[in-house]
Amino acid sequence: MKLCGAIDYQIIGADILQQDKNCLIVANHPSLIDYVLIASQLKRCDCLVKSAIWANPFMKHIVKAAGYIPNEAPDDLLAMCEERFDDGNVLLIFPEGTRTTPGVKSKLQRGAAQIAVRTERDLRVVHITVTPSFLTKEKKWYQVPKTKPFFKVEVKDKVEIEPFIKQTTSPTIAARRLQQHLAETIFPENS
């Protein structure tokens, strides 16, 4: 899309992202191509995919062929994540569970924090902005802005899981605290 002049983008910290392995990558999700922008920078990327995509007749074969992990059956999910981490892969998750709606306060689902705590894996935070709005949840794919969309992908600091686990003996409480921290980190404007 960049080569044909449809969009432009900048990835700040791509070299850091390319060195990550055995961790979760968590990002906000403003557009349909966020996955492409992030995954294109990663050597071994798996993705946690919501069940609606696995049920979509156009998408299910793609995610299955890619070997991605369905977001169902928690016990199987954790085992699959652990196996991928052991292979040196990163796991890309959009913890909102859907695309971000501009102007609406975002709420994270529990999955990313639960996986991080229960597999004891660090998380890399990525923040994406797109100006003007393009391929977002509230607009149709054919609603093209008058100016070329610019995507800014910022690789943020890694969130170490150890302090969250050491604060409590309860994985549930550790995951809640981590989820709150992620919400403040991914969406500082909501804090």
UniProtKB/TrEMBL annotation:
The keyword Electron transport does not apply. It comes from Vibrio harveyi (Beneckea harveyi). InterPro entries: Plipid/glycerol_acylTrfase (IPR002123). It holds the Pfam family Acyltransferase. Pathway: Lipid metabolism. This is Acyltransferase family protein. Keywords: Acyltransferase, Transferase. Residues 23-133 form the Phospholipid/glycerol acyltransferase domain. One of its GO terms (molecular function) is 1-acylglycerol-3-phosphate O-acyltransferase activity. One of its GO terms (biological process) is phosphatidic acid biosynthetic process. The keyword Isomerase does not apply. It comes from the Bacteria.
